[in-house]
């Protein structure tokens, strides 16, 4: 998929590479005097016209004559030859004398070109004067087609043949499904006579409109057997191309959920995409213009067929023949004929014996056209049918839907609660959330006597909070849990109230900046059960409290709560609560440096949670197991546990639960670190329906891959939208700002990179001071400051040098402060933090000079734990420092080769280009990068001497040349002396002038 320039409509299109390749190949054959035709088929709005327009522009650019004609929607015989008359019209007014002569030599063209001065009609042609092929054509046209028509056909072919002798001719015919009989006959005549003309005929038609009895179908079945005729089917976009089309079409960045919604509803049809996007940001209502287009197809069908389509539209999904018989009220024969017509006209399709609309938007259009009364009646009929049948999977959800739409809230409420339970068992928390929310919306509309006896509003709020948490919507989870605490009354039992407050604490844990509120909620829960006997409720409160106390570093209290939770849980057989407490014991041991004990506790927690069906507890255990290995840079083991947790979350429908999200983000981050960079952009997208904050976490991480690969335009789309989520989750701030700083640095905007690093650090000081992630931010900001200072030195801009050094020293100090005061999960800094600290110190030494190779060697070694990309970055800097200090050139070359190999494997284009540039200056030959020496002049200069002279020609001083080439100022002077001796020059300027005169240097281009 590629983006191509905007067409005349001003709408960006996604190029259909395969289709355009086929069309261009057909044109290339026509240029070689191999005449041909292409029949372009596809649904309305799929992009046939844009393909024809693109082909026309391409052919015209290659010197071809492009003639375009369009059929219009009129009844058979309305406007004969219309597309050919439109296409050939320019021939009547052309200034080309050869074309004019060819047209006037064929007076029969007057039937198509009324502009031309008409001559006498051809005299009657006797049958004996016809060739064999003409005689066959006459017979095929039928008795109603006289020889005058054949003369016209021959005239059209003749004039096109004459023109094609001078230049290629391309005829584009649109909407052939509306063609009249005369047009079809003329097209058939042309296609059967394609031989060695430089002629290409391309005709488009809507496949959906060419039903079995359509008059075009006979022509198609005949001409497709011709060797010169090719068929090209234009299909809707796939998901990725459709997504790219939406993003290209949008005037401003839009949310991932909206993009996914448009892609899903449009089913890849470009016209539908445009209409849905243009209608409104909300896109749920079908745009009026699109509805009219869709309904126009339905209006062509019989009244009974339209009635059946209305019945099918209410079903919402595929519907059985028996259901249609019962609800439509038609007899079997009438129904069969109606369904046959709908299927033949490609409005309905049959899938596994059920009927459904060919396109979901067509179903929406028909449904939206229903009158309120008939809509309610049909929904009620479907609901009655479902109630009278044996229940099966999904039946409660269908019953709930039809009951809601028919205003039967009593039936709907009970069905929604059953559907909620079913969705939970099937591992579909998103569906369960929708059901419970609908139940809440109609709760007050159902009389108290008709509500289920075992359900009240408090339970619904509690369930809604849980399902929102497990569906990736933490903010909604908090809203529902808060509503549940507000709904507590004096008659609510202590254990139940404790359960509500514990759920509120758990919901709050998923939202940044709420720790004080979390502690308050769990303390209220504990107060309610503190003095009660052991129970499952008490064990759960203790286990949750232990985890919260660990988070705020009250480890001793957390340990006591966890041990008490284990005791209570074992006493009452609450396996899930025991597993939760064991996780807390494992993480406490991990923080204390007791690694093996921690991992054994966590494995025990995983087993206990699995055995007791505590799915969230199982994911939590796997997350912390992975984190235990991650913190110690045991990347392979960490990835194994993260992947295991992701798989379990997928199997149980908890992909977007709190720990399902944590597992996925950690796994994606480690893929970046370890050099396992995904090719598919889906890796950086969250699922549909998750909150924008959760989506932002994934996009923030993915932005680092995007920048690392040099996809700067994509990064420009991603990063601005993430700034709004910094306060919601500071991990988004760290990841997205990290990517933004690197983006500015790669673009050479070093001052901007320093500014962005400073902005993030100032923001972190307000919300989360001295986080270990601040070391990394300081490194990237310091990298930019070092580069800014180096460039300013070359220019002799001392003021900028000092400003950059001062900014760099502040970043260096901040990084050291984070390393000293940041709180690691274990007792000391792990390998990752130590590696970034080593890189920070190596950069600090570069602020006022070339840097210390020994420090860079230490940084390279520190990242050897498996941080592939970051180690390659350090290898590049190590090579720079070695070359700048006249160090070990062989080691420098080795580092460049290793860095290049990593950059090449990852597709890390900016790093690869930086390695190439330094390698060229250092005369290090990379794989496949050797440059052949110039042979056009006798060149006495060595490559190094030419490099020196090129920079002297640009006005560089000896010192500046040395800094750029990583050689000493004295060495530059030696090279210049040799150059002047070889060229017979006494001065630098004279040597440059002689080199230009002899072609040893490329002449400078004028700036005027």
Automatic annotation (TrEMBL):
Highest taxon in the source lineage: Bacteria
GO annotation terms (biological process): regulation of DNA-templated transcription
InterPro entries: AAA_16 (IPR041664), P-loop_NTPase (IPR027417), Sig_transdc_resp-reg_C-effctor (IPR016032), TPR-like_helical_dom_sf (IPR011990), Tscrpt_reg_LuxR_C (IPR000792), WH-like_DNA-bd_sf (IPR036388)
HTH luxR-type domain residues: 934-999
GO molecular function, one term: ATP binding
Keywords attached to this entry: ATP-binding, Coiled coil, Nucleotide-binding
Entry's Gene Ontology cellular component terms: cytoplasm
Coiled coil: 588-615
UniProt KW Lipid metabolism keyword: no
Keyword Coiled coil set for record: yes
Protein name per UniProt: HTH luxR-type domain-containing protein
Source organism of the structure: Amycolatopsis japonica
